[in-house]
Amino acid sequence: VLDSQYGMYVWPCAVVLAQYLWAHRRSLPGKRVLEIGAGVSLPGVVAARCGAQVILSDSEELPQCLQRCRSSCLMNRLPHVPVLGLTWGRVSPELLSLAPIDIILGSDVFFDPKDFEDILTTIYFLLEKNPQAQFWTTYQVRSADWSIEALLYKWNLKSIHVPLHSFGADKEHLASSSLPGRHTIEMMIISLAQSEGT
């Protein structure tokens, strides 16, 4: 049963986001990166190995996921990467005291529609504090019935679709998975929408 441990598994979306980071590895040294819902932390680990200053985070209510983040760092010789408990939709001292960031990463965080608004309120908060930052996210298309478009509009955010072929992630083997079924992965970059006066 995967749903009770989904932070313990390298999902296909993480592989695709890691591929995007690898394709942009020359721009990563010195960038300040936060991965949300990190779990196994593949994208964050790749960013750190490419020279970014990375902070990994997962829900403060999921200590096993936070431990998985720490273990991934140790296995990849990244013992100094900080791991924070950040729960989507909650303004915590850890969230308020975060240092400036350039890039937020999230692979397959748009999993359960009940979490979508909490995720986007957290992203909005981070982008308001860091107006030039971007949220790089991959997600698996699981249902035609859900969309985040209305929530993006509500929170004054915009998204740009990133075609997988543009960074060599449109290969079937790249996101192969032992999970049953076909995995349609999409990527987008979310940023603050421009205000009327700018």
Automatic annotation (TrEMBL):
A GO molecular-function annotation: protein-arginine omega-N asymmetric methyltransferase activity
Annotated SUPFAM superfamilies: S-adenosyl-L-methionine-dependent methyltransferases (SSF53335)
Gene Ontology, cellular component aspect: cytoplasm; nucleus
Keyword Iron set for record: no
Localization per Swiss-Prot or TrEMBL: Cytoplasm; Nucleus
Record key words, sorted: Chromatin regulator, Cytoplasm, Developmental protein, Methyltransferase, Nucleus, S-adenosyl-L-methionine, Transferase
Keyword Methyltransferase applies: yes
InterPro entries: Methyltransf_16, SAM-dependent_MTases_sf
Gene Ontology BP terms: chromatin organization; methylation; regulation of gene expression
Primary localization class, coarse: cytoplasm
Coiled-coil segments on the chain, per record: none
Catalytic activity: L-arginyl-[protein] + 2 S-adenosyl-L-methionine = N(omega),N(omega)-dimethyl-L-arginyl-[protein] + 2 S-adenosyl-L-homocysteine + 2 H(+)
UniProt similarity note: Belongs to the methyltransferase superfamily. METTL23 family.
Cited function: Histone methyltransferase that dimethylates histone H3 at 'Arg-17', forming asymmetric dimethylarginine (H3R17me2a), leading to activate transcription via chromatin remodeling. Maternal factor involved in epigenetic chromatin reprogramming of the paternal genome in the zygote: mediates H3R17me2a, promoting histone H3.3 incorporation in the male pronucleus, leading to TET3 recruitment and subsequent DNA demethylation.
Self-association state and partner proteins as the record states: Interacts with HSPA5, HSP90B1, TUBULIN, UGGT1 and UGGT2. Interacts with TET3. Interacts with STPG4.
Protein name as catalogued: Histone-arginine methyltransferase METTL23
Organism for this UniProt entry: Panurus biarmicus (Bearded tit)
Gene name, Swiss-Prot/TrEMBL: Mettl23
